[in-house]
Structures are given as structure tokens and as C-alpha cells.
Hints:
The chain has about 350 residues and is an alpha+beta fold. The chain has one domain: CATH 1.10.630.10. It contains 14 helices and eleven strands. The protein has a four-stranded mixed β-sheet with strand order 1-7-4-2. Helix 11 runs parallel beside helix 14. The longest helix is centred in the middle third of the chain and has 32 residues. The mean pLDDT is about 90.
Amino acid sequence: xxxxxxxxxxxxxxxxxxxxxxxPPERATQGPSHLAPWLAxxxxxxxxxxxxxxTRLRSLVMRAFTSRAISALQLTIETLCHDLIKAxxxxxxxxxxxxxxxxxxxxxxxxxxxxxxxxxxxxxxxHDMVAMYQANRKRDTEDQAARSSQEFTEFLQGYIKLRxxxxxxxxxxxxxxxxxxxxxxxxxxxxxTCILLLNAGHEATVHSLGNGVKTxxxxxxxxxxxxxxxxxxxxxxxxxxxxxxxxxTRYAYEDSEVFGHSFKRGDQVALLLGSANxxxxxxxxxxxxxxxxxxxxxxxxxxxxxxxxxxxxxxxxMRIALPILFESCPNLQLAxxxxxxxxxxxxxxxxxxxxx
Length: 356
């Protein structure tokens, strides 16, 4: 596999329709039987689809996942952040578990309309499924991912059935109702979409928040950068400097030459987002965290037709959670060196010990 490392190459390949997420049919394999529940979710995921299937799925999902629905969460996210901070312990504690994880997972519960009491189960299912992207995964990792996929699927199937007979003002109800030119999401597509929104949205936001707090503390950044007139630039710099995802892959769909490299149909290319976001051709002193630098387009949420649907929600959560944390805890500091997780897709921490 070759890798695209420059900002220009990564952004170009995101938009190049000669490359895509789905493996060419003649190269695709059925996958091992013990992973069937996990593979079934992947098979119906918007993230893995290409046109025309992707066009249909994304259009239907966008009818439910509206900017109005996201904006309506602002007040409840603010209240949630304050409530979580009030529960912080006196001694050193892991901010990932106490704050960075709770904000997105509870927000996703509220958005979907599932009981917040289910948050620990949703979180565990998400972790188990996303563990499939870690380096050197073992058979027990795969078995647990399959079990959690099955449990997650069964829970959502039951909840979707409930919402069909008892519709509410939530995302699951809107996904059920979404329709375009007579087309609706199938049950498998509904399940896969809800799982994708939780897994991708939750994992990426946890890492964005965790990486952001870690960076702000390690660089002794003045919390004034989190004020209303600077928060958006600070968020973009956090996403550029220490993005929540470091790599996406694409398959070549035809023989072609791109940036001096010859591809054959079925070849894979790795798009290295972390590298693209540190490209010195775009950012001066690119290895330095500068929250006041002019905003340039980073690649942290992907690009092209697969640009992350949840990016507005992730940015909203960061825009709310970071200022509230540093305003409420002005003496916040690291209690131990941050510990990064062993994964090659998501990029984030396993532990962020802090003290107030």
C-alpha cells in the first residue's frame, strides 16, 4: 500500500471519484463467519458505500440529521457539561471517563432518543466494534466485536420497532420517516446508520476533546483563546494539530496515474490525515500549536462525498465543552503523562489523568 502524505494529495484523493471506500467486487471476500454480525453492519454502512448506493443513503440520512436538530442540542449540552464538572472528584482523576467520553455519548443518546441509562451499554458496544481498527487485533477482539455488534443490532431493531408505533421528536423517528422519491431506509440501513452515528461520532469527539485538553495543558495555552471570538479558530487548530483520526484508505477503481504514482484497479492508498494537517507547504511552523493562526482547511473530518456528517455536532460539542471546562476549572493541570491508545484509525488517548 502506498500513502498520500501532503495536504494537496490527500485532499485531491478525497475528491477523486476514481478512488473510493468500497473494495472492487472482484476483489471483495465474504469474510470469516465468526465476524458475520460485525460484517453485516459494515455492509449497510453509509461510511463504506459508494454511489449510487451512497448517494441514496446520504440523502435520506441528511433529511433527518439536520442543522436544526443539532443546534437544538446546545442548551442540553451546556447543562450536561456543568453537571459532569460538579461530579468531579477531589483528587487526580481520568478526564476521559469523567468528561470527554460522557459529553458525546450522552449527547448521542439524546439525539437518537434512546434512554440515557443505555449509555454504558452503547459505549461498550462502540468500543468493542471500533477495536476492530486497532493494530494487531486478536481473535478474542474479533469475537467480542461480533458479540457486541449482535447485541447492538438487536437493541436497535427493538427500539426502531417501538418508534414505528410510538414516534417521538428524535433522530430515530426522523430516520424512519425520511423518504426521497419513494425510497426509505431499510431496517438494516437504519440499524447501520444509528451505529455509525454513535461509533464514529462518539469516538471522534472523545478524541477531539481529549486531544484538545491535553494540547492546551501541555502547551500552557492562555484560556483566553477559548473566548467567543477565538474559540472557532482554536477548535480548528486542535483538529489540525492533533486530529481524532489519522488515516483513511481508498481503493483505485481504474488504472490511473496520480501524483507520479501508477495505480492498478484494486490498489489501496492510505490517506494520512495527521501528515496532511502538518504540511509545511500550508502551515508555517506546522509542528507548533498556534490557536490564533489563520484558519486553513484541515482534513480531520475527511473530504469529498464522504465528508463526515457529524462534523457540525463534533464542533458544537467542542465549542461548548472546552470553554465550560476551563472556566469552571481554572487550575486544571495534568497529573500524569497522557497515554495514547494502540490504534491506527482513530487517534486518541486511553487515559488523561488530571487534577484541579
